[in-house]
Design brief:
This protein has about 475 residues and is α/β, with parallel strands linked by helices. It has two domains: about 5-160, Aconitase, domain 3 (2-Layer Sandwich), CATH 3.30.499; about 290-465, Aconitase, domain 3. The protein has helices at about 5-10, 35-50, 80-95, 110-115, 145-155, 180-190, 205-210, 215-220, 240-245, 255-265, 315-325, 350-360, 380-390, 390-400, 445-455, and strands spanning about 15-20, 25, 30-35, 60, 95-100, 125, 140-145, 160, 165-170, 200-205, 230-235, 275-280, 290, 300, 340-345, 370-375, 400, 425, 440-445. The strands form five sheets. The protein has a five-stranded parallel sheet. The longest helix is centred in the first third of the chain and has 14 residues, at about 80-95. The termini are far apart. Bound molecules: 3-isopropylmalic acid (IPM) and iron/sulfur cluster. 3-isopropylmalic acid binds near residues 36 and 128. Iron/sulfur cluster (SF4) binds near residues 129, 407, 410 and 429. Its cofactor is [4Fe-4S] cluster. Heterodimer of LeuC and LeuD. GO terms for molecular function: 3-isopropylmalate dehydratase activity; 4 iron, 4 sulfur cluster binding; metal ion binding. InterPro entries: 3-IsopropMal_deHydase_lsu, Acnase/IPM_dHydase_lsu_aba_1/3, Acoase/IPM_deHydtase_lsu_aba, Aconitase_4Fe-4S_BS, Aconitase_4Fe-4S_dom, IPM_dehydratase_rel_enz.
Length: about 475
């Protein structure tokens, strides 16, 4: 076996210097900055008296610490205003392109970057954010970096990395109706465990991936980090090429055509070996929702919350803690559990296809008074496109709030929180203790499942929605 994996090809093409013992200095093609880690990196650069080596390869947008209330400005969330101000001032001073609040292109960094064509197959992409792996859905080597690594990259256009072992997750079969990339991701994390991918680069492959649209691939790669992996990858194909054609920052005309032969070589060779191989029959996957405080604590929506007695003794305390935090009884059916909040948004699921899926469920139905339901588009482009096809009206008529783009209630870094003890079905990617606010109870699910919960007032199987 001497074939190369997709990851090998991406890695080899970016090695500036082999540092020995598996370490390499890699060239970085794109550096994305957001309002939490960006100001820290830029501040460190100032303290060290360094310039940004290639400002034209860095792109910034505020997303985490800005309000998403309609009519907001960069300062509406007062406690985040200094981050927004620092990001805007530093970007202006250093000639970094900023997609500011209310400007075309603004959005959650992992939504706006693929959408603008800032991310392309074969590029290395970094951001001071663990969900940078999202961009692997386009065949880019994309990974989150710490703020010191990020500052180093701004100054030198390189990062030092140790080549990780590689895992391939191959999905056979086909997804059943109502089952999405999000369900597939939660199912995978449930089956393999939330640290199964730790230390690995994971390539997702197989007929299910070939048939999956690009937004679904971005969702799946987004959740690679919830499997523990820093890198998620999907080989670019004709769907990737079609998605990128005409994007504002993708090459144009003849330059685009000239890129295609090299993009088409970006696939794992038939005789390449992985350190770990996983096969999953995707036909068995059903709509899936988390019940606990880790993405691996997921169950089919028609299933029951686990009983501590059914797990090995060593796992019992964690399970009991999760049940207590979540306010659930062992063995109870998850469907029918009343919810207080629904959040449709985040870099996992706030793209146009996500909003369409949610709107299809919301259309003609109504959110009961007991539920507060928000739709937070992932970017201004998503918002405009959704409005152009009337999705906003469907949501508003059904009783959802239609908001401005940002991370919002995914991490509550902008003060938008689920109140303590309240239960939220969320299309985001993390259900950790306190993630959506102190004491908030999060159930991760697909956009259609979140919409189903909103209109029925409880966790519901969207396949049996009345
Ligand atoms: C704030 C940021 C550094 C963080 C991340 O790295 O992922 C956030 O985006 C998150 O989702 O928890
Ligand atoms: S939407 Fe959530 S997961 Fe994504 S970058 Fe923002 S806070 Fe992180």
């Amino acid at each position: 076996m001497n074939g190369h994996t997709l990851f090998d090809k991406l890695w080899d093409a970016h090695v500036v210097r082999d540092l020995g013992d598996g370490w390499a200095l890699l060239h970085i093609d794109r550096h994305l900055l957001h309002d939490l880690s960006g100001p820290v990196m830029l501040g460190e650069l100032s303290r060290r008296g360094c310039a940004v080596a290639n400002p034209e390869l860095a792109f910034a947008t505020p997303d985490h610490a800005i309000s998403t209330v309609p009519g907001r400005t960069g300062q509406t969330y007062a406690a985040g205003a200094h981050l927004w101000r620092t990001l805007t001032e530093e970007c202006a001073a250093r000639r970094i392109r900023l997609f500011d609040v209310d400007q075309s292109g603004q959005g959650i960094v992992h939504v706006m970057a693929p959408e603008l064509g800032l991310v392309l197959p074969g590029l290395t992409v970094i951001c001071g954010d663990s969900h940078t792996c999202t961009n692997g859905g386009l065949g880019a080597l994309a990974f989150g970096v710490g703020t010191s690594e990020g500052a180093h990259a701004l100054a030198t256009q390189t990062v030092r990395q140790r080549k990780p072992p590689q895992m391939r997750v191959r999905y056979s079969g086909a997804l059943a109706p109502g089952v999405t990339a999000k369900d597939l991701a939660l199912h995978t994390i449930r089956q393999l465990g939330a640290s199964a991918g730790a230390g690995y680069c994971v390539e997702f492959a197989g007929p299910v991936i070939d048939a999956m649209d690009i937004e679904g691939r971005l969702t799946l790669c987004n959740l690679s980090v919830e499997l523990g992996a820093r890198y998620g990858l999907i080989a670019p194909d004709e769907a990737t090429i079609a998605y990128l054609r005409g994007r504002p920052y993708a090459p144009r005309g003849a330059a685009f055509e000239a890129a295609l032969p090299s993009w088409r070589t970006l696939r794992t060779d038939a005789d390449a070996a992985f350190d770990c191989n996983v096969e999953i029959d995707a036909s068995q996957v059903v709509p899936t929702i988390t019940w606990g405080t880790s993405p691996e604590q997921a169950i089919p929506v028609d299933g029951r919350v686990p009983e501590p007695g059914a797990v090995p003794a060593g796992e019992r305390p964690a399970l009991e803690d999760a049940l207590r935090y979540m306010g659930l009884q062992p063995g109870q059916r998850i469907a029918g559990t009343p919810v207080d909040w629904v959040f449709i948004g985040s870099c996992a699921n706030s793209r146009l296809s996500d909003l369409r899926a949610a709107a299809q469920v919301a259309r003609g139905r109504h959110v009961p008074d007991s539920v507060t339901a928000w739709v937070v588009p992932g970017s201004l482009e998503v918002k405009r496109a959704a409005e152009a096809e009337g999705l906003d009206r469907i949501f508003v008529e059904a009783g959802f709030q239609w908001r401005e783009p940002g991370c919002s209630m995914c991490v509550a870094a902008n003060g938008e929180q689920v109140p303590p003890g309240q239960r939220c079905v969320s299309t985001s990617n993390r259900n950790f203790v306190g993630r959506q606010g102190p004491g908030a109870r999060t159930h991760l699910a697909s956009p259609a499942m979140a919409a189903a919960a909103a209109v029925s007032g409880c966790i519901s199987d969207l396949r049996s929605l009345a």
